[in-house]
Design a protein that fits this description.
There is one protein chain. By secondary structure, the chain is mostly helical. The chain is built from 26 helices and two strands. The chain has a two-stranded antiparallel ribbon with strand order 1-2. Helix 8 packs across helix 18 and helix 17 packs parallel to helix 20. The two termini are 22 Å apart.
Length: 506
């Protein structure tokens, strides 16, 4: 009997009306406060944002949790283009709270899901242990309420909130329906990525950005408009996100999730829809020229080899993916910069990095962890990373990279200390081992790629990948208790168990 999963033809709760409604909701969430901010009513705009976000989060969640997920993804994907569309073109910044509507919505959603999250922690106590260690370390390192602190705290907290939202939003639906809904999200993201990439390609980057007043809105200016691979330079387009880094990570995430549901879960979507989705994301990724996407795909391959031929242990596979990521990046830096780089990167990572982008990411990772020697419990949230440089542009390159910048792991270690890293690792390994194969692969890809990018902790860049990780969550321990013959994740996806899960509403 084939292990291939077939499409669940039942209603998945998200049709054209839902998509239009969530699009309109996102437009209102950004549009109304921004229009009020033009008249100088920044406080009113901030209050309106909070009210709109809470009300729309509550309404969409009560209608259908999947409708809320689509609303939140709309807030993420359309944040920058909506800000540019509604902006007057004058050189006045949009209130910070308006652009953080996505974060406010996450917090509101997690509050609504409190009872379900509590059940999850009771069923998986190690999630609670990791969360206590991790979040306590973050809170103990808060010393002020600066914008750098708020931005870094958001990035350290949001990824796990996204996973939790995905887990709870899908808990009442069959696994096949979850996969089908994830495919809807992938098509939605791929559509906007493709439209944005082609729009910028046709109009030209300057005209495209001028059309949305990018130059007059703080925070929408691209951090990297070009990159290089083995000495060859590539220009980059950001599409509707205007930031090529974020656009590239979302596009790569779409491709990774498509690969996982097709080749790990063996789920067969409609061929034409799968090809169009894959093609749209591929075009966006190529135009964004995100090198770290190669690392993401390599991690998928490594985990596939581990789970199929070496070991079925999720923790071993995830840790192996981290080691591979580090060694592959170190090897690339050595090939590009010569053997002297390999000798000097440990003692002087900033000095030997030069201007080569991958070496800069390695410098941030190593420097951030070296900071644990002088401050084992952390230097404080907001004391490092790219956001610290953004709000303190006068700092030197040594101070910037020395704080772990350009590496999510590096800046987490520098700012929050070794206990935060310990809690982070525990959370990752527990979520990967408890959530089934698909969740394990996606979390491994995110955590492995985050070694060499700071952006991937941001809620925009990691949105698609971690939403899918949560939506595709399967409590392996729970499944084993119900099915004594369970021998692993692959067996767990047999047609018989899928049919049984449908009958039980799992």
């Amino acid at each position: 009997m084939s292990n291939t999963l077939r499409r669940d033809t039942r209603d998945i709760g998200v049709g054209a009306v839902s998509i239009v409604w969530t699009f309109a909701s996102a437009a209102m969430t950004y549009g109304i406060p921004i229009l009020f901010s033009h008249s100088g009513n920044s406080t009113i705009a901030a209050v309106q944002t909070c009210l709109l976000v809470v009300v729309l989060t509550l309404v969409t969640y009560l209608v259908d949790p999947r409708c809320y997920v689509l609303y939140w993804l709309s807030l993420v994907l359309l944040q920058n283009v909506m800000a540019g569309f509604w902006h007057s073109g004058q050189a006045d910044d949009i209130p910070f709270v308006v652009t953080e509507a996505k974060t406010l919505s996450l917090i509101a959603a997690v509050s609504l899901m409190g009872a379900s999250i509590a059940r999850l922690v009771r069923n998986s106590p190690w999630i609670g242990v990791g969360a206590v260690i991790y979040f306590s370390s973050l809170l103990l390192n808060v010393s002020d309420l600066s914008l750098s602190m708020l931005a870094n705290m958001r990035n350290f907290v949001a990824p796990f909130l996204i996973v939790l939202v995905g887990i709870v939003a899908a808990e009442r639906f069959s696994y096949c329906m979850r996969i089908e809904f994830v495919f809807v999200l992938l098509k939605f993201a791929s559509f906007w990525l493709f439209i944005g990439a082609m729009g910028e390609l046709i109009m030209g980057t300057l005209s495209w950005r001028n059309a949305f007043s990018v130059s007059s809105i703080g925070g929408l200016n691209s951090l990297a408009e070009s990159t290089s691979l083995f000495g060859v330079s590539f220009s980059r387009t950001g599409g509707i996100l205007f930031e090529p880094v974020n656009a590239g990570y979302i596009a790569a995430s779409v491709l990774v999730v498509l690969i996982v549901i097709r080749y790990f879960l063996r789920y067969r979507a409609e061929t034409l829809a799968w090809v169009l989705c894959f093609s749209g994301a591929s075009v966006a990724l190529l135009l964004a020229a995100t090198k770290n996407a190669l690392l993401m795909f390599a991690i998928v391959c490594v985990i596939w080899l581990f789970t199929r031929y070496l070991t079925g242990r999720s923790g071993v596979a995830v840790i192996s993916a981290w080691i591979m990521s580090f060694l592959a990046t170190l090897l690339y830096g050595t090939v590009v910069k010569g053997t002297g780089y390999l000798a000097g990167v440990w003692s002087n990572p900033i000095g030997v990095s030069g201007g080569e982008s991958t070496s800069i990411h390695m410098a941030g990772l190593i420097s951030g962890f070296k900071g644990l020697v002088s401050a084992p419990f952390g230097m404080g949230i907001g004391s490092g990373g790219n956001f610290y440089r953004l709000y303190n542009p006068e700092i030197s390159r040594e101070v910037w990279l020395g704080s772990g910048s350009e590496s999510s792991w590096g800046t987490l270690a520098f700012q929050s200390g070794f206990l935060a890293i310990l809690g982070f690792v525990v959370l990752i390994l527990v979520l990967a081992s408890k959530g089934g194969e698909a969740t394990m692969v996606l979390i491994a890809v995110w955590s492995g790629a985050s070694l060499f990018t700071e952006a991937f902790f941001g809620p925009i860049a990691c949105s698609v990948l971690l939403l899918a990780a949560g939506l595709l969550w399967r409590d392996v321990g729970k499944t084993r208790r119900r099915s004594p013959s369970h021998l692993g994740v692959r067996r767990d996806l047999s047609p018989g168990l899928v049919a049984a899960s449908r009958e039980q509403g799992l």
